[in-house]
C-alpha cells in the first residue's frame, strides 16, 4: 500500500503505483473549486486522480466536488490531525521549569509567531491595564524560527522581565549549545517572577499549551495561520491574525466563538480583556473557561479519522 496525505499529489508516483496494482490512498484530503483539478484546463490532472484507490476526505464539500467530476472512490473520514492533537492532550508529558514559571498564573501561549505577531503580543506585555484590576498575565512565546539572531531581536524588543528557555534549564542549553545562566539555575524565584519566557528551541510547542489559558497562533499576518488544533485540544481559546480562511478548523471555531480574528493591537487588547474580565469572580464559570470548552469539545467531536482509515485498510488486506 501507499499512503499520501492531504495535498501530496505526486503524479509520477500515482501512475507508477497504478501500473503495479498497488493500492494507493490519499488521507485527510481536502478539495476546493479553485484547485487546478477543477479548472477548464484540468482534465489531465483529474485523470490522474483516477489512479487513487480511495480518497479519505475531510468534509462533505470535498466529497461532493469529487463526485461532480466523476471521482466516486471517496468517503468522508475527517482529518487525522484531530486524532494526533487529541492523543497528545491526554498524555502531554511535562516541563518542570515551565511549570514553575506558569504556576498559579494566567498564561498566554503565543505559538509559531513571526515578528508581526510578536508586535501585537508585545503590546499586551507592555500594557499593564488589561482590565480594571490588572490581570497579572504571563506569556510564553515560541517563535516559528529559533536561530540566534531571530531570538536576540525578539529579546531586545521585550526588554526586562523576559527570559530565554535555554537560560533556565541545563537540558535546553545542552541542545542549543548555549550555557544556562547559573544565577537562574541557582535561584528558581528568578524564573517564577519572570513575565515572559521565550522558547528558543524546537519540538516543544505542541506540549506547551497545557500551561496556558489563552493562545495566540502566529502566521495570520503572513501566508496563513499555523496549527490551532494543538491549542484547542487543551481547551484554550485561540486568537490569530486575519489570514485564516483556508483553514476549516479556524473558520469553524470562529463561527462557534471559540476562536477570534484580530487585525491590530487594539482589537487584541480588547478581546483579551473581554475573555478575562470575570476570571476571578466566584459563583459562575468564567468566559475564558467556557470559551476554552468550545475549543476542546470541537476537537473531541472530530477525532476518529485514523480508526476509520485503518479499518478500511485492514478489510482490504483481508480480502487479498
Count of distinct structural domains: 2
Q: What is the arithmetic mean of pLDDT?
A: 90
Oligomeric state of the chains present here: single chain
Structural class: alpha/beta
Order of strands across the widest beta sheet? 7-8-6-5-9-10-11
How much is the radius of gyration in Å?
23 Å
CATH architecture heading of the largest domain: 3-Layer(aba) Sandwich
Sketch the topology as an H/E string, one letter per element: EHEHEHEHHEHEHEHHHHEHEHEHEHHH
- N→C terminal distance: 12 Å
Tally of helical runs: 17
Describe the overall structure.
By secondary structure, this protein is an alpha/beta fold. The protein folds into two domains: 2-78 and 304-319, 3-Layer(aba) Sandwich (Rossmann fold); 92-300, Glycogen Phosphorylase B (Rossmann fold, 3-Layer(aba) Sandwich). The protein contains 17 helices and eleven strands. The strands form two sheets. A seven-stranded parallel sheet has the order 7-8-6-5-9-10-11, sandwiched between helices. The protein has a four-stranded parallel sheet with strand order 1-2-3-4, covered by helices on one side. Helix 3 (60-68) links the parallel strand 3 (54-57) and strand 4. The chain is elongated and about 65 Å long. Residues 129-133 have low confidence and may be disordered.
Summarize the helices and strands and which ones pair or pack.
Blueprint: E1 2-5, H1 11-19, E2 24-29, H2 43-49, E3 54-57, H3 60-68, E4 74-76, H4 80-90, H5 96-102, E5 106-113, H6 115-126, E6 137-143, H7 148-158, E7 162-164, H8 165-168, H9 170-176, H10 182-186, H11 188-193, E8 196-198, H12 205-208, E9 214-217, H13 229-233, E10 238-240, H14 248-256, E11 259-261, H15 265-276, H16 287-302, H17 305-319
Parallel strand pairs: 1-2, 2-3, 3-4, 5-6, 5-9, 6-8, 7-8, 9-10, 10-11
Amino acid at each position: 500500500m501507499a499512503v499520501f496525505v492531504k495535498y501530496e499529489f505526486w503524479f509520477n508516483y500515482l501512475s507508477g503505483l497504478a501500473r503495479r496494482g498497488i493500492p494507493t490512498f490519499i488521507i485527510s484530503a481536502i478539495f476546493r473549486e479553485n484547485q487546478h483539478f477543477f479548472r477548464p484546463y484540468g482534465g489531465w490532472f483529474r485523470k490522474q486522480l483516477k489512479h487513487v484507490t480511495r480518497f479519505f476526505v475531510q468534509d462533505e464539500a470535498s466529497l461532493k466536488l469529487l463526485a461532480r467530476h466523476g471521482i466516486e472512490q471517496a468517503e468522508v473520514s475527517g482529518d487525522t490531525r484531530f486524532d494526533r492533537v487529541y492523543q497528545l492532550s491526554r498524555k502531554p508529558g511535562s516541563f518542570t521549569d515551565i511549570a514553575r514559571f506558569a504556576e498559579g498564573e494566567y498564561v498566554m501561549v503565543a505559538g509559531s509567531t513571526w515578528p508581526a505577531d510578536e508586535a501585537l503580543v508585545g503590546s499586551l506585555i507592555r500594557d499593564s491595564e488589561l482590565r480594571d484590576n490588572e490581570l497579572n498575565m504571563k506569556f510564553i512565546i515560541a517563535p516559528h524560527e529559533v536561530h540566534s539572531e531571530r531570538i536576540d531581536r525578539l529579546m531586545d524588543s521585550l526588554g526586562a522581565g523576559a527570559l530565554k528557555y535555554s537560560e533556565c534549564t541545563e537540558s535546553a542549553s545542552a541542545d542549543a549549545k548555549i550555557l544556562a545562566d547559573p544565577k537562574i539555575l541557582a535561584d528558581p524565584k528568578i524564573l517564577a517572577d519572570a513575565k515572559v519566557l521565550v522558547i528558543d528551541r524546537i519540538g516543544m510547542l505542541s506540549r506547551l499549551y497545557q500551561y496556558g489559558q489563552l493562545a495566540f497562533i502566529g502566521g495570520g499576518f503572513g501566508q496563513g495561520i499555523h496549527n490551532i488544533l494543538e491549542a484547542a485540544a487543551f481547551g484554550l481559546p485561540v486568537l490569530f491574525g486575519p489570514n485564516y480562511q483556508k483553514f476549516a478548523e479556524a473558520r469553524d471555531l470562529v463561527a462557534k466563538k471559540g476562536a477570534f480574528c484580530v487585525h491590530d493591537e487594539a482589537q487584541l487588547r480588547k478581546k483579551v480583556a473581554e475573555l478575562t474580565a470575570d476570571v476571578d469572580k466566584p459563583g459562575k464559570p468564567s468566559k475564558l473557561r467556557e470559551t476554552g470548552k468550545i475549543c476542546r469539545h470541537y476537537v473531541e467531536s472530530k477525532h476518529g479519522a485514523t480508526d476509520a482509515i485503518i479499518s478500511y485498510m485492514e478489510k482490504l488486506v483481508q480480502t487479498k
